Amino acid sequence: MTTKVGVFLHSRHLETEAWEDLVLGLPMDDRFGDMATLAREVLTLSQDHELTCIVIGGGSSHRDGISEGEYTKRYLLANLARLEEFPRLKPLLDRLSGPQRAAFGRAVHDIIITPQVRNTVAEIEAAAGIFAAHRVDRVLQIAAASHAPRCLKEQSVARSHGRIAREQQWYAVATEMTYGDTQPEDVCVIEPLHRRDQPMTFVRPGFSEVIAPYFFLPDADKKALVATIAEFMAARDGAARLPR
Length: 244
Fold this sequence. Notes:
This is DUF218 domain-containing protein. By secondary structure, the protein is of the alpha/beta class. The protein folds into two domains: 3-182, Rossmann fold, CATH 3.40.50; 190-241. 41% of the residues lie in helices and 17% in strands. The protein has nine helices and nine strands. The strands form three sheets. Strands 7-4-1-8-9 form a five-stranded parallel β-sheet, sandwiched between helices. The chain has a two-stranded antiparallel ribbon with strand order 2-3. The N and C termini lie far apart (66 Å). The mean pLDDT is 92.
């Protein structure tokens, strides 16, 4: 039985710093961005897995009068040949027959762009609906290394609200690129505590419950909150360094 596979690329605002590097990757360093990761995943599918469609989120930004999703798709098509520059991808591409290479090109040409979405959750929900219409069984959700943890969280949120068909199996795939000068270590994951041997598990509200609304505060309040936390952490760090 053949498993129908869909690939979902999270789009990003077109004014993002080093946008091209995030989308393509860095061939000279053999570091995979969205496009290189997509190629690796598609070109290494097993024989019983069939690529059905590729979906890109339709964000709200524009460049040169072109929407975010359409601009991203055009960039992918224009830079297909650059995949040969990645040392780890070249052997995969070299082993393709003419028809197989043409099929890969058509899959990129036929990328589906979601309607315009306002946030990551809406982007995931829109993509899930497209995959359901194409009877996709397995979804590879590709996002930058600094964004993938949140994308996985939002995927779980969408699924908990019934926005992803139960039959769809989703797998988050992190690229090797991060935003700006950040590193994967800079991502902060705050989960509700669950171990009975940790006293803070039973403190309510927990830290995750208090901090979660931070992402939806006005910018001025975000700055104030960050300053407050930074001041508190600096004070605690200083106290920790005092002689005992």
